[in-house]
Design goal:
This protein is mainly alpha-helical and 232 residues long. 73% of the residues lie in helices and 0% in strands. Helix 10 (167-177) runs antiparallel to helix 11. One of its GO terms (molecular function) is zinc ion binding. It comes from Dromas ardeola.
């Protein structure tokens, strides 16, 4: 990928190498692949190839997703749980049909209190249902945020809200970022999630930061959070 970024080889060569990793069992390798594909997806979101890169993601990640399944297996290590969350989140965001259907089913059970999602599956499920969700989905997530008694769960929800893709709902999330519901130190995570969630989100987040610059600057002054905000 570094060679492709430097213009020495074609990005097509990178994708060909990625295809060879379908039987890879190691979390660290998949994490790297996921990160690099995320960079390519971001770049391609401004082109006609965006849908095609999502198909590529589904092709590369679905074999490992099928092998891991949704539930932990006996004797599994911590890295397998991390890998499951990573892979299901990637497939869900890309619109993998079976993953989306199962995420919706499990989310419904979670909200209704029938079967609470394990901690390592919450982020991938939340991201998936938000990415392909509507105003009802967002309202449910905001309700879960309000009801959460642990800050860890509130932060988990804040980080993924930006996955929602409709322009009016993106604005709702950005307004929420500056509300009393979100701790000042966590506002950056919400805005960052919107900026990284979609092409529409990036534009909206950039405009929002400019429009609210005075309030944000006064809130963070010269601290590390203002530089993190600019970076995201």
């Amino acid at each position: 990928l570094s060679q492709a970024r430097a213009g020495i080889i074609s990005t097509v060569e990178v994708l060909k190498v990625m295809e060879a990793f379908v039987n890879e069992p190691n979390y660290t390798v998949w994490s790297d692949l996921s990160c690099n594909l995320g960079i390519l997806s971001t770049l391609l979101s401004h082109t006609d190839f965006y849908e095609e890169i999502q198909v590529f993601v589904k092709d590369v990640f679905s074999p490992i997703g099928e092998r891991l399944g949704w539930d932990p297996k006996p004797g599994e290590g911590h890295l397998d749980a991390l890998l499951r969350g990573l892979v299901l989140g990637k497939l869900g965001k890309a619109g993998h049909k079976a993953t989306l259907e199962e995420a919706r089913r499990r989310f419904k059970d979670h909200v209704e209190g029938k079967h609470i999602l394990s901690a390592d599956l919450r982020s991938p499920v939340y991201v998936t249902i938000l990415k392909h969700g509507d105003s009802t989905t967002l309202d449910t997530m905001l309700k879960l945020h309000k009801q959460a008694d642990m800050q860890e769960e509130k932060n988990r929800i804040e980080r993924v809200l930006g996955a929602i893709s409709q322009p009016e709902l993106i604005q709702k999330v950005l307004t929420f970022a500056l509300s009393e519901e979100v701790r000042p130190q966590d506002t950056v995570s919400v805005i960052g999630g919107v900026a990284g969630g979609s092409k529409q989100g990036r534009k909206a987040a950039w405009k929002f930061v400019r429009d609210n610059w005075e309030e944000l600057y006064n809130r963070y002054q010269g601290g590390f959070l203002i530089s993190r905000l600019i970076k995201v």
